[in-house]
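Instructor's aside before we start: the two examples that follow are unrelated to each other. I chose them only because their records fit on one page, so don't look for a connection. First example below.
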Amino acid sequence: MTGEERRELIVASLSQAGKPLSASAFAKEFGVSRQIIVGDVALIRAAGLGVRATAKGYVLETALNPDSYRGQVVCQHQLAETETELSLIVGLGGVVVDVSVDHPFYGELTGNLDIQTEEDVAAFIDRVAEKNARLLLDLTGGIHLHTLVCRDQSHFVTIKEALGEAGLLYQEK
């Protein structure tokens, strides 16, 4: 199998999967190293196809439902409140697409999250604890942005209000 054929199969698998697929799973399927798959995905992206890497694997970027709404919220809290924040968002029907911070040296740093369910929240929190990982918010005094996708703008507003009531939105001092 050529690299081009493998990349076509990767795109086909991602378009039909409906869930993230890992580089390790592709490597096993095609009998190549994980690094070969990482390179394949880089070439797919360079060709103009939107592939996002999440903690759960690769997903193909597709057009949003025309009625859905994408917006950003600016939050500020500590690590201990992360689960509360994420659970509140998904509990009200939002999807946490990513998190970003404005780093004083590197500029904007973004991490893809793709957190859609309470199970995703639990898995994320478990992974952070298991790896003793630091979150991006640690770099900026807890200030960070989330891109959210919601059914519509009114659901986005509801989520933003709930985050404010919980004391999780950034408040200018």
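Example two begins here.
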Amino acid sequence: MNSTLMKQLTIWGASFLLLAVLAACSRSESIPSQELEENREQTISYTTQSGEQVEIPAQSQRVIYLGSTLEDLLAMDIPVVGANLVHATGSYTEGRLEGIEDVGNPGDLEAIAALQPDLILNGYTEDADRNTAFAKIAPTIPFNSALPFKERVRELGTIFDKKDEAEKWITKFDAKSELMWDKLQLEDGETATIFLQLGKKLYVMGNRSLGVVLYQERGFAIPPAIQQNIIAKDQTFIEVSEELLPEYAGDHLFVLVLGNDESQAESDRMMQSPLWQTLPAVQNGNVYTTSAEWNTDNLLALEQLLDELPKWMNR
């Protein structure tokens, strides 16, 4: 065999080997996308709050969430690729937002489409036009983020095939709550009030947000004025004037202050006022001031709140 033919065979052999390697790599790289496509093709039928039937992925891998309780999904390890991060500012989200793109508020269509989601949860349930626009990008579920937190956990469990995980979360939360109340050792009938300072406005909270923990069965009793004027009227909160402080103030006062100069200055002024000083909770040293970021019942916050509450009360 002459040298020219030998060189040609060598080149052909090397070329064939290289093509074989490239083909193998190509097959290897195509597997994840193929599996992703198969996951998208496997669907289940989901009934929305309005009774509409929506076909959604059986195993969602690229979720867009728009609303105020992104932390619910993070607590349940749901694969979120995009969200309106304007609401996810609490300290309890630290280290949990990596890999999640901010798609704006209430959600930019181009930014959402670019992420190629396989499911969109829209917490702005009354925005029918946007639901229709989102549905052209991916299956869309109007999601009620105002549901009580245990209902939200179970709803997410249904949507993402995590029913067992949802029940385990609730069981763990209830058990940890019991341990916390054992530690706090409240007297029967001890009441508590949640005041929220937002700028110059002062609000009294009901049994939502922080109230879902404080007013648990083994927790604080609800002051009569809060029961009559907020909870009985199916309100989440009401604005109050300082003159009404004695009417709403319980044995313990939790003062939540928004993190800006105006809110802090107004809160400081109120707590230095003569009327504030007359409140029994103030005279007994039962006032706990903290950030308004805890005015929520998202799952990440609730998990950490059971540790934070005893610290606030120095117990």
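The radius of gyration is 27 Å.
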